[in-house]
Amino acid sequence: MVERTSAPAGANGRAITAERPEDIRNVVLVGHSGSGKTTLVEALAVATGAVPRAGRVEDGTCVSDYDDIEQRQHRSVQLSVVPMRWDQIKVNLLDTPGYADFVGELRAGLRAADAALFVLSAAAGIEGVSGATLALWEECAMVGMPRAIVLTHLDTARADFEDMTDTCREILGGGAAESMLPLHLPVYGPKSADGHRPVTGLIDLLTQHVYDYSAGEHTETPASEEQLELMAEARNRLIEGIIAESEDETLMDRYISGAEIDLATLEADLEKAVARGSFHPVLIAAPPPEGAKQGLGTIEILDLIARGFPTPAEHPVSATGATGKSAPLVCDPKAPLAAEVIRTASDPYVGRVSLVRVFSGTLHADDTVHVCGHGPTETANHDADERIGAVTAPFGKQQRPLGEAIAGDIAYVTKLSRAETGDTLSAKDSPLLIEPWSMPDPLLPVAIKAHGKADEDKLSQSLGRLVAEDPTVRLEQNPDTHQLVLWCLGEAHRDVALERLRSRFGVQVDVIDHKVALRETFATSASGRGRHVKQSGGHGQYAICEIEVAPLPEGSGIEFVDKVVGGVVPRQFIPSVEKGVRAQALRGVVAGYPLVDVRVTLFDGKAHSVDSSDAAFQMAGGLALREAAAAARISLLEPLAEVRVLVADSYVGPVLGDLSSRRGRVLGTEPDSLGRTAIRAEVPELELSRYAVDLRSLAHGAATFTRTYVRHEPMPAQLADSMREKSKS
């Protein structure tokens, strides 16, 4: 192994820098909530000397979970970047939230990183390797991102190292025994009365050395005879796995024939296999004891990151230029600038702050850059030149002056007032566009209103800033229900969004019942007479009209037909009747929902030569429609959505049963190659308000869904009566 250096880097308040892209490693930490990702980041920061101790917010040494909301909720809710130095390599660790509601922050971390550490709690067993973890593993596999697994919480009574590695191999590795193997075995201390088994060290399967951490520092000793016997089978399995991934085809023949394989050759082949993403080592970690400098496994993890994970140059990203052709970017500080905004935040002192990953060129403070963003709508598309402010290095909640960020690095920039998450920054004379990553569609509606007049004045601007910061929040001003709706990913996501409105932007909102856009229609034909006659001195009001209303097929809207003969309704007032009918249809005729899909025929009426007017005939038209509705059977129409659920096979039955309980009609099922089933069903939108939350609970995170509006259809009579009564109260 190479000589390790862990001189304090960053603890003096200076930014950690790199001169070449080859000296940078960008690593994202992925795992379920409570797996120990943030604790691992803190332990690695202590081991490299980036901070003197872990987890002391009051001393400014807490490098993750420093946001006020995170402190109150005791969990990560946003992406944080912690740079450190190890063996002359700058390591940017991206700590991501583990809770499914904040998957947008996690996907941003995946975009900024070149490799991933999947942190899994051994105490959680198979539940720790959840459907959400599997989905992320497959997502990384699709883009060829190298991955390693770090097991935590091995010292708990329920933890079993061998069972957990087998579980990871079965679920994440698809049973591939040769591509997902541990590099070390745990060394346990004496078992206490409560079942606690402290892990005091590691046995390195390749070097056959024991790394003792019992005193809080990494010390190395040769393995004993007993330990050599214990590791023999696991070591042979690891060597065979490494040789299977080796580019030297003669290596396996030599090994089978009994030839001794050089340790340096095995280590080199292991590092190459990890870097290209074909081998996924399993490592072990535990936080350092109070006052100690090195936590269990931190040195081994840092070694793997520095030597086995790829450089930014090995992670190609393409961009589209002015010609419209896509080409890979060159990870060279001297190349034209190409960077991407990974996330956006608001600072009370400096305004909007953008976290940027530089893929090509060098980003300097006070540069003028071209900001390019293409969204799903025309209003989301923008191309503009902006001058950036300072370039700083993130370090928890601190911002350390950096001056410039070279290709492969991650930095914060200020004063980009137009840049949003996913936008591309490029040289103003050579504009580029990097295709943004996909974000999950928020499917939990939250209707809100301002708490008071002062909140109402600030609400619009604050919501705009909230949506700019978090692209997984969607803002909707529903034209049918006239509600302001925040679409979120789940209840925890909703709580954080509302808390940010209150604490960061000073806006208090109230959550109200979310309304679904219902419709009304005539189920039977009926006639109505509208009479608006008033005489109270001066000009009176006189208008009488008679109409007939008949139902039409779905999607027909309101059709107005003029069948007046003999001039009983003067020609100039017929449009007035139509205007009154349409206005009343918009207001509804029974429960206050818009009326649709009817033909209104005006066939008779009366007018006065002096007292008739446009306003009078508008009133008469509305009254006629209401009278016709009173004589007809009115149906309430509810919106129907086509729902596509992608669920692990083991949860197909419960999901189908749940859809049936929601008045859903299953259209079909289709298996895929990854042990999942796609279910298509039509479900009333009234039944989907909390489906994002309920499905996650039902399938333990192993399911996702999309919804698309299909049509409106009649609501069951009993439910329609209930909705009518509710509208009257």
Spatial extent as radius of gyration:
33 Å
The portion of residues forming beta strands comes to 25-35%
Question: Main sheet: which strands, in order across?
Answer: 17-16-22-13-14-21-18-19
Assign an overall shape: elongated
Main pleated-sheet profile: 8 strands, antiparallel
- Overall pLDDT score: 87
Q: What percent of the residues sit in helical stretches (DSSP H or I)?
A: 25-40%
Q: Decide which structural class fits the backbone.
A: alpha+beta
Number of helices: 16
Number of strands: 35
Low-confidence stretches: 1-9, 56-61
**What gap, in angstroms, lies between the N and C termini?**
76 Å
Structural account:
By secondary structure, the protein is of the alpha+beta class. 27% of the residues lie in helices and 30% in strands. It contains 16 helices and 35 strands. The longest helix is centred in the first third of the chain and has 21 residues. It is elongated and about 110 Å long. The N terminus is likely disordered.
Helix and strand topology:
Elements: E1 24-30, H1 37-47, H2 68-73, E2 80-86, E3 89-95, H3 103-112, E4 115-121, H4 131-142, E5 147-152, H5 161-171, E6 184-188, E7 199-204, E8 209-212, E9 219-222, H6 225-245, H7 250-256, H8 263-275, E10 282-284, H9 298-308, E11 318-320, E12 326-328, E13 338-347, E14 351-360, E15 362-364, E16 368-373, E17 382-387, E18 391-395, E19 398-401, E20 404-406, E21 410-414, E22 424-427, E23 444-450, H10 453-469, E24 474-477, E25 484-488, H11 491-503, E26 509-512, E27 519-522, E28 526-534, E29 541-551, E30 558-562, H12 574-587, E31 598-606, H13 614-631, E32 634-648, H14 652-661, E33 665-671, E34 676-684, H15 691-698, E35 703-714, H16 717-728
Parallel strand pairs: 1-3, 1-4, 4-5, 5-10, 30-31
Antiparallel strand pairs: 2-3, 6-7, 7-8, 8-9, 11-12, 13-14, 13-22, 14-21, 15-20, 16-17, 16-22, 18-19, 18-21, 23-25, 23-26, 24-25, 27-32, 28-29, 29-31, 32-34, 32-35, 33-34
Helix pairs in contact: 1-9, 6-8, 12-13
